[in-house]
Amino acid sequence: MSQQPAPQLPDPARTPLFYQRGFRSVLTQGIYVALTAIVLAYVIASLDLREFGFGFLSEPAGFKVGNQWLVDVDGVTNSRITMYLVGVWSTLRAVLVAILLATLVGVVVGVARLSSNWLVARMAMLFVEVFRNTPLLVQIVIWYAILLVGAPVIQNVLNVGDFLFLSNRGIAIPWPVPSDGLWGAPDWFVGIWVLALIAVGAVAMRVRAKRQEHERETGRILFANRWAMGVFAAGALISFLILGVPVSIDRPVIEGTSYAEGMLVQPEFAALVLGLTMYTGAFIAEIVRGSIQALPKGQTEAANAIGLTGYQRLTLVILPQALRQMIPSVTNQFLNVNKNSSLAYAVLFDDLFRVATIVQNKAGHALEMFFVIIITYMVISFAISAVMNVLNARVTAHRI
Amino acid sequence: MTQQLPAPQSQRIVLPPHRQRARRPRSVRTREWIHRNLFPSTAGTALTIVSVTFIAALTVGIVWFVFFDANWRVITDNRWLLFAGSFPHDQEWRLWAAMGFVFALIGLSYGMWSSLGRKDHLFIVLTGIAVILFMGHGGAAFWSSLWFLLSIALLFLGYVIARTIGHDRARQRSLLTRVILLRFAFDDAFSLRGGFDKTVPIQTRARAVRVALFPTRTGANRIVGGLLILALPLVLVILLAGGGASMRELDGFVLNLLLAPVGIVGGLVIAIPLAIGRASKLHAIKWTCTAYIEIVRGAPLLGWLFVALFILDDIIGGDLIIRTMVVLAVFTAAYMAEYIRGALQTLPHGQYEAAQAVGLSRGQSLRLIIMPQALRISIPPIVGQAIAIWKDTTLVTVILPLRELKGNADSAIAQSEFIPDRIEAYIFVAVAFWIVAFIMSRISQRMERAQGIGER
Amino acid sequence: MTSEDTASSEPAPPKISTEARPEPGTMVPERLIGQPDIITVSHVDKWFGDFQALDDVSLSVKEHEIVVILGPSGSGKSTFIRCLNRLEEHDAGRIVINGIELNEDVRNLNAIRSEVGMVFQQFNLFPHLSVLSNITLGLRKVRHLPRLDAEALAIQLLERVGIPEQAEKHPAQLSGGQQQRVAIARALAMQPKIMLFDEPTSALDPEMIKEVLDVMQELAESGMTMLVVTHEMGFAREVADRLFFFDEGALVEEGTPEHFFTSPREERTKLFLSQIL
To answer: CA B344 → CA A132, A188, A318, A394, B278, distances in Å?
Structure first.
């Protein structure tokens, strides 16, 4: 026989409770929880919570909020919460524009840093070093100073082809506005026109998908993208013939000492967005560079070997692969844009944080206002993360 | 992780060259470099031309602004305001003493753990010249320049001292050994003829004295490390103790230079237990640490400074500067904890097991095995966060009634004669911050490179 | 912190006496007859989620015995020896090592770690410490030896594994074979009664395997109790007193090398040996 019988062991001694690991774990956690509770209790006890409540938010505001767009509140009849929401809307605008522009700047500069052209690479490096290592607050106030002090007064406005005006009153740019359609239709026709375009777009996407499927099945090249674009152009033309274009581009003009028509980008908004864009752009550039450099060298060589041009190599081989590496870090930068937008305070742009401090100044309730602020930022951050997660899921849907 | 290890000497086979290899002349290589990097193709050439034009325009613009357009008197006239604000003038020496101490310490650390390259020397000299020019411009800066030069001299002195000690490789040397060495150096008992023994060369005696008096490398490591840890309290003592400035008189750039280290050091001290707690198996600890990190990271720093101003007063009281320091540390800690946790996760699990198998307790293995490695991995992001908090010290001006460099620049341009000069003032602020941030990022690169050798 | 923190200051746990049992004849080589059991494992189960890693394992090992554990990958052999110094916790059954029961008792955990040394497949040296510090760490921090004594012992151990000249180097500067020998020295430094080897040569280049096996053989001849998980059949044949064959979490067969290599009883053992030899 080659199998031992199971060894016989005397019964083990009972472990006293104090030496049992499970008990130790419970004990440590218990002590920890008790200490935490004591600290929390102390904090709560030191706060003056007698008037805690959010009722003050619905009282009339009694102050004005600047930099309004698409909203019109005067602060006399509107409640504090309304004014705060106007501030949130301003924050959202600045964050959205800054995120889009910063991504653009970041990708361009990041790719430029790896350019084979020595000068371009050096300039990109200089850009990154300058904008990354100086305080964002100072950058924003410098942009603001340039826009206020450096820019010409409106009498000597800087006119870029009657298309864009720059003065210390801000930047005026063309903007699409609703106008009468071909048949003199009313304003709400814009809606129908947009719906029609969406429908045409949907049809075009469907055509593209069908063509691609056929392509995969038959192996014949069916020019899915060209077909889709053709379908979209034709549909747009037809809708134009039927409905007319109910949108016109409104160019800015100067009337006396002020802008009229077009869209006025106020200096505060411009300074904030410029600062956020350049600062975040420099960080995103480093992320882009890092993730491109992390790709195996063989990828570039393989792309060269199959005869792609430099641009094709970048857009078809390098960037798509680098993208999946970039997304988590870039998401972090987007979240930073959200949080850094609070620096609007320094140029007196009425974002949510500044409106909140004004409310606190008028009504007190610092603790409540702090909760409101942090929850708002967290909700915006959550929204950004959610969008980026969807993007991430799409990009990493199939593993390489 | 790819690493380059020096191949064992015995296995490296190098055949002697049997003919002189031709080297292409430098002129050819230069021409090729220019061709490849600047004029590779038509498009490349066009890009170069556009870049050159742009750089030329930029340079002309900057030169014109700096030397002809800008009115730098907004800076030079407000030199003291920007640097130290309301710091009492008669206590000026305290600032210089603190500066000399910090510079000497930087020199010591560099000498101890790294080395100054040619670029570093150039950078120090250029910065020194720039600062002195700035001080000299507008006159009456002789003493300040002298003090500054002295500080730079202290930096190099510290560097040289640390380098000298660094040669002594012994780990420890007992007091007895030191006494014997000293006796050997000075005692004539070794001489049979009586009187000074000339058979022992004077150099040997000098060496004996040096070895006897100087700390060993390990000892020096401890001394410099201890000084680094104590640096912040020591500087505060120099500035505040015994009739120095009051807390509220810390102002201008001095305030930035104090707030940032407090945030960084305090942040790191809180971050380490926080990171360990977040990785803990005990749910209560894990969840509270996670909640702390996520909540702090959820709101912008300005929001937390709002807390320091309006809410924290009720909880901990104290001067606003103290509360701001607490908030900076608490804020930084959340970010640093995340980086350390990331490093903890990348450590191979075998390290934990090996530590257990050797018989270390959990606390010991964290302290001796896990943390040293995790901190080393997370140096780059931690320094990144340190630079971020350095830049963020400007934020105390925004809603708090504290005046750091940017805040005092605001005061400077509020003077009626300097109202049009705000761009100059802010650009000066930006450059001042840039210089320190640049030094920090250089140090980080150094540490990264140093840790790559021989370890992991 | 957690509970293990305090373990080093705990009093010694009560011991369980495991007396020498009657030998089942052919099972035990002559030189071990009369030796007491140092490891006793009784009906041990181990689950990872719903995967059963160990299935009713019972065995015992005598003092000074050299045991080689064989088995295909995923057979539970590594899990088994990791249970022996409680890097893994078994879910059912009992393990008693040198009279110390492996259970929830925090005192036992600390006690067992100084009874049992372990050598890992991936060496797991501490990369931030020099070779010397790797070895002296446990001596100084757990045994509280003065630095000089610890270093003298470490140099002795390095001489024993044949690389005293590498003391000041860092692990990354050594070859795989040298690293594994340092790992053995590190485990020996704690003066364990039992050494566990978890595939000590599997991560090594072929030319380095021998230098590690030589050290292990020398260790075996010095009277150490050893449990070795390995695929080195030469080592098993020459050095082992007894072989255990694991498959699918269960102890399928045990016996002397002679029994294993000439007349294995179980079909699965035969199949495994035919594949590996």
So the answer is: 28, 59, 31, 29, 10
